[in-house]
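Researcher: We're teaching a course module on how sequence relates to structure. For the next exercise, students receive a sequence and then see the predicted structure as tokens, so they can try to spot secondary structure elements on their own. Here is the exercise chain.
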Amino acid sequence: MTLSIGNVHKLHVLKKITEGFILTAHNEEVRLPDEEVSGEIELGEEISVFIYPDKQGKLLATMELPEVRIDSYGWAEVAEVLPHLGVFVNIGIQKEILVSKDELPLLKSVWPKTGDFLFVSLETDKKGRLLAEPISENEVTDDLTPAPASILNNEIVGRVYRSTKAGSFILSEEGYRGFIHPYERKIEPRLGETIQGRVIDVKEDGTINVSLLPLKQDMMKDDAEVILDYLEETGGAMFLHDKSDPEDIRHTLNMSKAAFKRAIGKLLKEDKIEKNMEKTTLK
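Model: And here is the predicted structure for the students to work with:
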């Protein structure tokens, strides 16, 4: 038997040493430090432990059995962010585990922050070091919990487990897989960020589409305020109007053309602006 790191093994307590115990199985030995002992243990007793390497690469055992292992995924809290390396996560043992920058988004603006949670499993590199790796899309699909059609238009809470140019992918508290299109958000959420959104579509396969934007009646006020703020910042005028290109509107104000027209209509009714075929101005 080979004691593989990142996994749980059943070992016998061989002897007590200074600041710990020696555990054994099939002539292999590993140290269990006192700080990794849970409860009382006796010599000869068989216990379940998780095996991991210390900073020098020597094997250690802990009676804290993390959900995150070589063969299983779990949520791990981000403990530290180092731009040149990646992020370190806490899986529930004394040692924090690195998620390499190669496994993180290219844009550091959507990297997780301390306190966010990543859905990871463990792996070893060529040097035998223990690393954490975010879940892949195939693994999410294999263990998918289908969402019921009844949750349409309901609020939902989830964490971003994958961030791409196409949009953000989330796992909800119930285990549903969700997708947030860039048009359904004003700010791109971070990888590992906990978000609250609204279910706008339930697909046949049980996945959902989620919006982080408020409902239209609430959004009209928000969008109108965005337009007023922009007009004040630009001296009271902007060269956007009903016939403007939708991409120009989105690039300038980060809203759709439909949302722009609704907000402009609201501001006209409130007599706060005036417009013509060339520009929109503050009154």
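Model: If you want an answer key for the exercise: The chain is about 15% helix and 35% strand. The CA atoms of residues 273 and 283 lie 5 Å apart.
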